[in-house]
Structure formats: structure tokens, C-alpha cells
Specification:
single chain; 2,3-Dihydroxybiphenyl 1,2-Dioxygenase, domain 1; 3 domains; five-stranded mixed sheet; four-stranded mixed sheet; 4 helices; 12 strands; disordered N terminus
Amino acid sequence: MFFLANQEALVRVSFFSVNFLDYEEYTAIIEQPWSLVQMMSGKVTGSLINIDVQDLAKAEAFYCGVFDLEVIRRFGSDAVELTGLGVPCFLLQKAEGSPAFPGGQSKRDYSRHWTPIHLDITVTNIESIHQRAVDAGAKAEAEIKTVPYGKIVLMSDPFGHGFCLIEFNKQGYDAIAPARRKFDE
């Protein structure tokens, strides 16, 4: 694939097709040349967290109250963006029993459920945050446990989503894994 440019247009040419870029794509490439590289390489540009809930107000109160997150944007009455976790976090109101994805048989269920992906939230005082979470409706699924890298407790939020609280000690994960490989050597 290569690009041809003149004052009139930028044309994307590949072995299979020729596409004319629209004005926004063209100006983005001219104003920020690195975007051309990103477009061509398919580079990952970040991550975010989406949490489906059946009651947005209750979820907002839980996540903001327990973890000191702040609402920075609202998307109508069905979603909010939170800040404070180090990655954008969105609470999305989705009705219980609604399809989990288009055409699928799975329905949303907010009773306690297992998923291979969950949040690990790092904290400075696990006992305090643990109690705050329980007081706000979370369930402790185990006792706070001391591990080589610090302390951990398994919990679930009021919407059935599992999460862990972790308080790292000075060593953190270095206590159980070799030092990180340096990529600049």
C-alpha cells in the first residue's frame, strides 16, 4: 500500500483497490504525519473499561463513592464516563435480560457471574477500601489475604461483576516474577 498526494486529494493505493480519502482524513494526515504511520500499521492506541449495569444511578454512586472516581461526561441517560482509574471507565445502563450481543442467545444477568476478565483495583489501604465497598453493597468473596506481593481480596460489585482489591508491598509483582525485560538493550 502507498499514498499519492497533491493539493487536490490524497489517494490510498493498494494492490486491490484505490480509495480517495475524505477531507478530514487528508487534513489529519497533513497536520499530524505520525497518523499516517498509525493508519498503515494498525497500532493499538489505548484501552478503556465498559461496565454494564442495570441501574446507572446506583452504579455511579457505588463506583464514585467507593473508589473516589468522578463523572466527567454523560451520554444521555444511559451512560457516564468516569475518571480516576488511570484508564477511561464507562458505566453503561443495559436492561437485565437484554441480549448480550446482537444475534446471540446470551442475556444480561446481573446475579453473580464469572467472566475470565475482571478488574484488579490497586489501593493504598485495602482494609479501608474493602469496608467502604462492603458498606456500599459489594460482597466480599474471601478474606483479605497476605501474599508475597502484598494483600488481595476477591469481591463482587452490586451488579454481579467480580473484582479484586490489591495493595502492593514495596516489591509488588517483582516478588513472584523475574525483573522486567528491558527493551532498549
